[in-house]
Amino acid sequence: MAKHSATPIPDASHERVALVQRARVEAPRRRRSSTAPLRLAPGRTVSTGPVARRRRHVLPLLGFCASFAFVSASLVNPLSGAQAATTTTGGAAALVAPGQSFTVDSAVTAATASRDAYEITQYVPPAPVVTETPEPEPTATKGAAAKAAPKSSAAPVAGTPDPGSAKAIAAEIVAQRGWGAGEYDCLVSLWQKESGWNTFAANRSSGAYGIPQALPGSKMASAGADWQTNPATQITWGLGYITGRYGTPCGAWAHSQAKNWY
Hints:
By secondary structure, this protein is an alpha+beta fold. Among the domains are: 89-121, no CATH class; 166-259, no CATH class. Helices cover 36% and strands 11% of the residues. The protein contains seven helices and seven strands; from the N terminus they run H-E-E-H-E-E-E-E-E-H-H-H-H-H. It has helices at 12-24, 50-75, 142-145, 166-176, 181-194, 231-245, 249-259; strands spanning 38-41, 44-46, 85-89, 92-96, 100-103, 112-115, 118-121. The protein has a three-stranded antiparallel sheet, with no helix packed on it. Strand 3 and strand 4 (92-96) form a beta hairpin.
């Protein structure tokens, strides 16, 4: 039978002490220098020394200075240097800047303002013109129409008659009596209305005859025996009749317009 040698059993209390002592033994830690760079990534470094601390104080200081400058600028009037001077000319006050002039004359209604090479004149409207409208003439009633005055004796312009015609003979006789062209115009209108200047015009109802429509036609025999065929005889008698009754051909023409006969 083999003999076993007795192996001593180590004491457990001694083992725990040894373990505790070994745990307390630590390697000395290396303190990082405050000026040593901190590696963040390959090729990049961040300094944590006094320079970084100075930068942290500079940024707030710059922000404060910018805010103070902005507030100070808002408190100053930007137009304080551009204030225009006040001058009084002719009793009126005006604001005049350097290089400008403003003139007001109290004696007139026009005001002139000038600036450098420009001139402005105030427009003064002219006085309104009042035009009176003539009142229309009152219309005559039927009862007063019979007693109305003769119409205007003016007649249309007759123009130059054809040579040798009855009108040409009448124009010559009118001129011999000293009447003007207006009387000749009235005579032409009068006898154009009566007979159309027809030497043989006869009114069957009344018996009037010839250019002047003598009634009866035989009255014209006092001017010539050829009263029935000669326009000169008829015109001579007719102008004598007009002169003795109306004075002028225009007087006879006005009566014919009013009464429709002469």
